[in-house]
Amino acid sequence: MKFAKWALALGCLLWVTVAEAEDSHHFEFLYIDANEGSASGGHTAIKFDQQVFHFQHVEPGLLRLYRNDAAAFEFAYGFQENRNIYGHRIEVSEDFFQALRDTFSRRLLIQNQQLSLLQALHDDQALVSGLQNLGSAPPLPIKGLGYFLTQYRATEALPIEAGNSSHALQQLHEAIVNEYGEDFLVAKRQQAWQTLQALKPDVAVDPTISEPTDTHFIATNSSFAERYRNQLLNLAALDVLQARLSPRSESLLQIPEAACRLNTTQRAKLQDFRQRLFADLIRLMQSQRSDWGYPMLVGMARLHALDHAIASGYLSVLDRSRAENDDPQATVIDEDNLPAALQYSQELFAATSKQLDSPIALDELAYSELELSATALMQLHKPRHDQQSLKLLPLTTTPSRPATAELVGLPLPTSELADVQNIVTQQIETYQNQLQSLYGYNLLSRNCVTEIFRLINQTISDMSTTAEESRSQASQRLLGGYVDEDGLNMIPFVAYDQIGSAYRLSTSFQRQPYRERQRQLRYRQMPQWQVDLQESNTLSSRIYKWNGDDAAFLFFTQDQLWPRPLQGGLNLAIAGSQGLYGLFSWPWDDGDNLRKGLKGIIVSLPELLFFNIRKGSFPGLLPEASIYRPEAF
């Protein structure tokens, strides 16, 4: 799934430009069958137009709702995880369709707000601890500042010395002084410093937090850590502007290929966008938002990049990848997959570059998409030594390359900070328990299936026409039948069958997994018996290559029923051998082979009883741009 976070993020860019809302009003219940890995017992989701909602088990033991692009969802589960996707399409009224989609969207936003509040409490706890131990406190990451600096230390006086100056920032500085006066920037920085020094944790005033519910939003204020970070951002933006700093050369990317040379029309388009950005940055200096420093930093870096592109004739953009080379979410592409990856990135870059030829004015969203696709393309052009694999860093949804900032002490008594830390620690414990009670995962009573039915039935209850109409009667009227979230309906394939027999369906369908699609293509090239024999095992297969995400196995048991126990027995022996080897390799592989061996045993045992779970996976698979067109899903 690591590759999906890089490649599918790019594919969604193309999707934005082609996706259109459907006129019909239906939703689809999706059942994804079992395979080794996450959701090994199967998974379920609900699809509205081109959006898929599904629940997943996340740490610390919560069931979280996610929303994904439909094409990205199918690629991740149907192609990379090689699972069958079964679907029921249920025709409904426009009112019910809107109400049901709104119910899922509302739950998503409510839960995201609650989890953000929990993270804010953890941030407050870390900041208060750091303020009590300034000498040993870890630095604070400041997003956007990394385009100009690697480290920053805010002081009452201007801390940044003038270095390699930027002509764009020189122009911006002069324009702001002409617009607001000679002393404006000095006064604004003094105000930002005083605001930082006056910060005080809210818990010192009101230590209570509203108990969360899954149906209502709560009114929240900016956390102490967020307000502290925002003031550091504002100070940093003013210091960068006063020093007229040029962005760091490694934070800018340029595509110096002849095919990417800007023509006169494209340069004029960028010049127009540059002028509008320049005016926006001048107005931003009077903004009342508390975090105006972040868009100011990004805007100044973009201003410099635009000037460079217009002057050189080649596109220059901010690097939108994460800066950490050891990022655990980085994707490694081997030599065999590199040509396909390059072609894929070139297609997406060409799609987003069309914005430069369009008669429509370039807006911030279109320019951001251009940055993302150019960053992906440039990552694939990075120099490599010999035949080493290429490491692709994850892309960020906004330009947010961070720099580290030393903590600035506040005039708060040590005893008060200690009291605040105790209060926040208690708040975290209480709020985590409340969220656990509200969203705690339970295999039998609260899982990816039960919560979908619970939200469907909640919507049905809200749309009852009379007080006398029961939920079951309302469901009969709206959906043609009623399915409860209790009992065996918590099992994914049972839930799928129940919907098929209860709800009013317009159609049902199956989307074949990647391996089966490839087998069907090979049938056109070779006799079927030869393909079946060749693809029956991992040693001779031309479609599947063993990868580190899968436990070791020999036979694919999903293709034939009767040989399954015999093949499963051999798979079980191989899994046991890997587990045995893992006992000895533990000191140098941290138990990786032992874990995979145990996993292999678990998914091999059902094969002895004619059941199949494991199907093999393709985590390094590249998506094709065509799957992001509306007719593809």
How many strands, which pairing sense, and closed or not: the largest β-sheet? 6 strands, antiparallel
The percentage helix is: 40-55%
Report the span from N to C terminus: 20 Å
Question: Any idea what the shape is?
Answer: globular
* Overall pLDDT confidence: 87
Structural Rg: 28 Å
Percent strand equals 5-15%
Could you list the spans in which at least 5 consecutive residues all have pLDDT below 50? Answer: 1-6, 13-23, 625-633
Would you count the extended β strands for me? 13
> Order of strands across the biggest sheet?
4-3-2-1-5-13
Structural class: alpha+beta
The total of helices stands at 18
List the helices and strands and how they pair.
Blueprint: H1 2-18, E1 26-32, E2 43-48, E3 51-58, E4 62-69, H2 70-80, E5 85-91, H3 94-132, E6 140-142, E7 151-152, H4 167-180, H5 184-197, H6 224-243, E8 252-254, H7 264-284, H8 293-312, E9 316-318, E10 331-333, H9 338-353, H10 364-379, E11 390-392, E12 403-405, H11 414-439, H12 450-462, H13 471-479, H14 492-502, E13 505-511, H15 514-523, H16 528-534, H17 564-589, H18 592-604
Parallel strand pairs: 7-12
Antiparallel strand pairs: 1-2, 1-5, 2-3, 3-4, 5-13, 6-12, 8-9, 10-11
Helix pairs in contact: 1-2, 1-9, 3-11, 3-12, 4-8, 5-6, 6-8, 7-8, 9-10, 17-18
